[in-house]
Predict the structure.
Amino acid sequence: MKDWLQQRVEDHRSGQAIGVYSVCSAHPMVLEAVANLAKNTSTHLMVESTCNQVNQDGGYTGLRPADFVEFVARIAGKVGLPRQRVLFGGDHLGPYPWSQLPAQHAMDKAAELVAQYVSAGYTKIHIDTSMKCSDDPVGPLSKLTIARRTAALCRAAEEAGKRAQNENLSYVIGTEVPLPGGVAGPEIGMNITTPSDVSETLSCMHQAFSQANLDPAWDRVIAIVVQPGVEYGNDGIQEYKPELSYRLSRFIEGYENLVYEAHSTDYQTRQSLRSLVQDHFMILKVGPALTFKFREAAFALAHIEEVLFPQGSSNLSRLIDTIDQVMQDYPVYWKDYYQGSSQEMRLERYYSFSDRIRYYWSDQNVIRALTRLLKNLGGREIPLSLVSQYFPMQYPKIRSGILANHPLSLIADQIQTVLWDYHQACEGYA
């Protein structure tokens, strides 16, 4: 029996121009905003985590796969979204976190990673074995090597699925994406995937799955990751241009049960997202654009706080100064992404589309500052004139009684401005 995602793919291939957006974030306020939208629109919530973010060692979130499932389920329960309408996907599952190890050791780790994801209840599994390990030969890995490693991890997933009675797994294959975490450096540059690349990948993968006696699993491969010509850098966005991806879009029509998955769709316009779905880039991944909107809202509230409270007050949250200090003290998550003078790097730390600041919201000092900010503003009415100044999109909603004049409501609505674009593009309303 097909699950919701598999049915959506089948409906898309039968001629319905519908899609699926998948949220890649572990930020609790982002997840709550997404869960609320799914509840209010009677749709499903698809949440994904990467191999670096969540793994058997805890990842950079400190969460193992079962922990992440429980974390998201708890948020869904809080807003009243039924658990059966929450689906989990694993993104870039492969040896990347252990690529400094010899291939066999790294693949053993990756097999355990995949098994834990499946055992925890993840049903959408993107296997990515494109990254080299310490003893791999010089040069890029061959497509055949990637395919064989993908099949090996698929077998680990299938075996874990049998043990956990989670056997109806959907697989995503393909490697036409940046390494987990995004594009390093300020420049945008990509090559649109060619039909011949897709054909060769599918041929190698099918051969590897067949040789590994994984034909039933191959039938549940629903998507291949490609680059349709969308990307973003620190201050630039590469807009989707359908005419440049026309051949790629038409090519997948020759494969009855497959669609494309597009990564880095953040910051695309609603119409561009709709065009992507219509062109069979059916599964749209989004993450940094959501935490970017959270950051916008949090900074706007911090500016409101500075207006309403005396500058010398010990009660000020000093959120912006606090998170910037933490970023400078622990630059590991942004130092390879931002370049230039101290002023230019400060600008990028705060406002870059790459949104490397998202890695710092879980720092305890930042959490304390944000908590103080929300307490300061949550206990009083924010003057409408300041709402108009700092939240112009939310101002008319508050005036008309649609939205509460409260910091948490302002943050959630700011995040949902992005989510509505994805929802409407995937449901065919754009």
